[in-house]
Amino acid sequence: MIEVKGLVKTYGPKRAVDGVSFTVKRGDILGFLGPNGAGKSTTMKMITGFIRPDAGTATVDGIDVTADPVAVKRKLGYLPESAPAYPEMTVEEFLGFIAEVRGFRGADAKRAQVDRAIGLTHLAPVRKQTIETLSKGFKQRVGFAQALLHDPAALVLDEPTDGLDPNQKNEVRSLIKNMAVEKAVILSTHILEEVDAICNRVIIISRGKVVADETPASLHARKPGARLDEIFRTLTASDV
Amino acid sequence: MTQISPVFKREFFGYFRSPVAYVFLIVFSIASIALAFFIGGFFKAGQASMERYFMFYPWLFLFLIPAAGMRLWSEEKRTGTVELLFTLPITTLEAVLGKFLAAWAFLGLAVLLSLPLAATIAYLGSPDWGVVVSTYLGAILMAGSYLGVCSLTSALTKNQVISFVISLVACLVILFLGWSVFSEILGSIFPTWAVDLLSNFSFITHFEAFTKGIIDPKDIVFFLSLTGFTLFLNVVAIER
User: Fold this and answer.
1) H or E, element range at B187
2) CATH says A2-82+153-235 is which class?
3) What average pLDDT does range A39-43 have in this prediction?
4) How far is B61 from chain A (nearest CA, A)?
5) Residue A116: which residues within 8 A CB-CB, separation 6 or more?
6) CA distances from B179 to A116, A170, B192, B195, B215 (A)
């Protein structure tokens, strides 16, 4: 579903992403791990077509993002880091805007899509509230609703559980798990427990390079008995 | 190009979701009428003409259009919604045009709020409607050019204050080229043909023709091409 081939991005003298390659199939929930600044967000921004790679490319459902970014954006759902949204709009207005941009133009089609997204993310109690008045957990859910609105086959989620309380984290995780059955999902995180909780594959990147790409079980098997964060530390030791 | 309409709608109604629209429209109306009454001698002139109302427009626009345009892109950059916008299936050109047209329509509304004044002079005397219509047309075209400059400068920074100041200076330069006081100073340094050439690039020179009832294609072309050129640079500035 999502295929990443040799992505490179350089900022000044620093290679933020240095030849990252991997594939994600339908049904996969890929945990994208790495220390802060390792290149997780940059990689995701290149897959979603927000920034252009210096070399390499990514394809979504066979469409090359460097050749036809708009077509890729039509296929993907993307939750950017910290879930940006227009603060002065209500939840309903905001999702209505997303629905229109996503091509649901008629009043009925638009409402159906918005209601579905609101139902999936349990936003009904705040649908008439402006986004600036929402708590962080609700804002994050608005970001989710926006990413899910057109029922995309591939989802890219940048730190979806960042800044949420334990209950909200749990809820977001079960949400991801439930909808991932038929989708390809990439989620970045630096919370290692998340990997065991929901992912069926893990990629660890360090200084812009992939240092591990395997199942959580084989990651554990690298050092039997050790905790995940010890393994993580060994793998990313060069990234100080 | 069908994607322009949701962007337009969001942006246009966005003005009215915050106090910005009301403050702007009220200040615009009061300031434009105060200038006409107290400095222009609107009634003292004893003419059934809007000339003394519109003669201050280039100066009024100088301050108020940067105020309306400064947020266009810098706000999106500051709040991170630019990442949301450009991971939706929209091209940069569609986004730039949608936002620009929305702001332009909003400014058009501000200009049209002076219609009661036109009704008043129609009641008191018999104005030349051809001149009134051409003046409105000129004012709206000029607003588009000012706004093009402001939209461009707004795309260059995420700081609204910087955006405002740069817009104001850029518009001031374009305005000054045709201001008689400034032309005289230039005339003492440069030959007359050079001064004439420079003043051809000013808002005032081209707007004055409209206020006299002359709709000259070269004035229309001037405003539209300045608008088009700044919007082209705007797209380049965002894609860079």
Assistant:
1) helix B180-189
2) alpha beta
3) 89
4) 26
5) A149, A151
6) 59, 66, 15, 11, 21
For chain A, what are the domain ranges?
Answer: 2-82+153-235
Could you tell me which residues of chain A have a Cβ less than 8 Å from any Cβ in chain B?
Answer: 45, 48-50, 70-71, 73-74, 76, 78, 80, 82, 84-89, 97-98, 100-103, 130, 146
pLDDT tens-digit readout, A92-137: 999 999 999 999 988 999 999 999 999 988 899 999 999 999 988 8
Residue of A nearest to B92 (CA): A70
Tokens of A223: 């050092």
Cβ distance of A48 and B7 shorter than 8 Å:
no
Between CA B165 and CA A68 the distance in angstroms is 37
Long-range contacts of A118-124 (CB under 8 A, 24+ apart): A118/A91, A118/A92, A118/A145, A120/A144, A120/A145, A120/A148, A120/A175, A120/A179, A121/A145, A121/A148, A121/A175, A122/A171, A123/A91
Query: Per residue, what are the HEC states of B28-83?
Result: HHHHHHHHHHHHCCCCCCCCCCCHHHHCCHHHHHHHHHHHHHCHHHHHHHHHCHHH
Res B239: pLDDT: 86
DSSP code for B172: H
CB pairs under 8 A between A and B: 59
CB-nearest to A88 from B18, B84, B88 is B18
Distance of alpha carbon B138 from alpha carbon B153, whole angstroms: 23
Question: Would the CB atoms of A89 and B17 count as touching at under 8 Å?
Answer: yes
The average pLDDT across A178-183 equals 81
- Residue B131 CB partners (closer than 8 Å, separation 6+): B49, B50, B51, B211, B212, B213
Are A65 and A47 a contacting pair, CB within 8 Å? yes
Q: What do you get for the CA distance between the two ends of chain B, in Å? A: 21
- Is the Cα torsion angle B54, B59, B64, B68 positive or negative in sign? positive
Q: Say if residue B172 is exposed, middle or buried (CB neighbours under 10 Å; 0-12, 13-18, 19+).
A: middle
Contact list, B99 vs chain A (CB under 8 Å): none
| Least confident range of A26-40, B38-52, B134-148 | B38-52
